[in-house]
Amino acid sequence: MSQVQVIQRHAHLAGGVRLEFVNGREGKVAKAMLTAISNTRRGSGESREEEATAIQWTLWGKQAENAAEYLGKGSHVNIVGRLRNNNYEKDGQTVYGMAFTAEEIDYLDSKSDAQARRGRGEGDEAGSGAGSSDAGGSAGQAGSATSGRNPRPRAMRQPVTAAN
Questions:
Q1: Rounded to a whole number, what is the distance in angstroms from the first to the last CA of the chain?
Q2: In sequence order, which ranges of the chain are alpha helices (DSSP H)?
Q3: pLDDT at res. 106
Q4: Exposure b/e, 89-124, CB count within 10 A at least 16 = b
Q5: For the residues 13-23, what does the mean pLDDT come to?
Q6: Per-residue confidence (pLDDT) for residue 122, from 0 to 100
Q7: Which residue has the higher pLDDT, 46 or 103?
Q8: Which is higher by pLDDT, 40 or 108?
Q9: Which of 9, 12, 22 is nearest to 162 (CA)?
Q10: Backbone φ, ψ for residue 157 (5° rounding)
Q11: Cα(79)–Cα(70) distance, rounded to whole angstroms?
Q12: Torsion-angle region of 43 (φ positive above 0: left; ψ -120 to 50: alpha; else: beta)
């Protein structure tokens, strides 16, 4: 089965992270789905066009749980993952599909931006836990603990530990 590396940069989430627990080899495993949209601009002057690319990503394990807790609608992220062919036969016809699985995700929002978004209730439409009140001094939260002068905080990178 072929796999291709996919990088989606400067994306924002179209909705909240949908978290569920599925049966795995060793009990329940967290699985999260999110849709990230990134824009590409082509041309110049009056012929300048903007094209949006939306990708539905699957996250697994602790990475899925952290995304559900800290990300919400409008959150800014960079995602590195893999694309896998997901073809199957149905009623004698071949159905072609693709599956995107995230391996690394960078949280690009500052801590204050993420807290403000959760305070407004954005990202809670799926009941994902993105509006958790545990937004305090968590070490897993991206952002700077100093003054809000740094507009681009270091991103938090979470590599996947289990291959799915």
A1: 13
A2: 61-70, 111-119
A3: 96
A4: eeeeeeeeeeebbbbbbbbbbbbebbbebbeeebbb
A5: 96
A6: 54
A7: 103
A8: 108
A9: 22
A10: -110, 130
A11: 15
A12: left
**Residue 55, pLDDT above cutoff 90:** yes
Evaluated on CA atoms 71, 73, 76, 82, the torsion sign reads: positive
Asked if 34 contacts 63 with a C-beta cutoff of 8 angstroms, the reply is no
φ/ψ region of 61 (left if φ > 0, alpha if ψ in -120 to 50, else beta) reads: left
DSSP state of 155: P
pLDDT at 141 over 60: no
Instruction: Output the pLDDT for position 18.
Output: 97
Specify which residues 95 forms β-bridges with.
88
Chain centroid to CA 85: how far?
20
CB of 29 closer than 8 Å to CB of 21: yes
